[in-house]
């Protein structure tokens, strides 16, 4: 099995932020505007996620379309989990943020105890990939809870939320270039891009009365989906060219 995770490039982070934003606005659109409700939306998205994740696990190499579709669906499901706890079960955002932090820490602990590494550059077994996707799910759930806690419970608002989480990511990048462990820096940035994307999505989609720009969830979701599709198409074409060149080199 080849490494099942894409290289960490600028395109990777752009798609990641776009995917988190689509997860926020897409879940809101289906649950509220379409009228499916949180439970039905969560069930549909969870079923789609299971099917896509099965295809991702079945593949023997990294396939951009399958990988990023799985990320988008994980984003939606992670958002739905947090929203269900907050809205339906009335769990405090403080409690859910703490619970998801513990769950993510336990996932990393089990992953490291089993594999002796948390590196994303060696996702070459099914077990490592299962740990990877479990960690991804909890980062989305934690990011959603932490983002809602900051922008709603603590009253920062969408604009300040974008600035705060964007600034924290800049600090992580700076720490990485100053010598902080690359694996730690990656996962910190991965967690922080979730509340950044959620705050950005809310800022663009929510009405001006609530501090947003009033673009609506439909326009925001379709614009960001278009960006994701364009970037994933570019990555797929580039990856195919690289593999073709590698085959030619082997034949020579």
Give the amount of beta strand, in percent. under 5%
Radius of gyration: 18 Å
Return the average pLDDT rounded to an integer. 86
Q: Can you summarize the main beta sheet?
A: none
Residue stretches low in confidence (pLDDT < 50, at least 5 long) are none
Structure class: mainly alpha
What is the number of helices? 8
In the residues, how many domains can be counted? 1
Commentary on this structure:
The protein is mainly alpha-helical. It has one domain (10-247). Helices cover 81% and strands 0% of the residues. The protein is built from 8 helices and no strands. It has helices at residues 10-33, 37-58, 64-88, 93-115, 126-153, 157-177, 182-205, 216-251. Helix 1 (10-33) packs antiparallel against helix 8, helix 3 packs across helix 5 (126-153) and helix 5 (126-153) packs across helix 6 (157-177). The longest helix is centred in the last third of the chain and has 36 residues, at 216-251. The protein is globular. The protein starts with 9 loop residues before the first helix and ends with a helix.
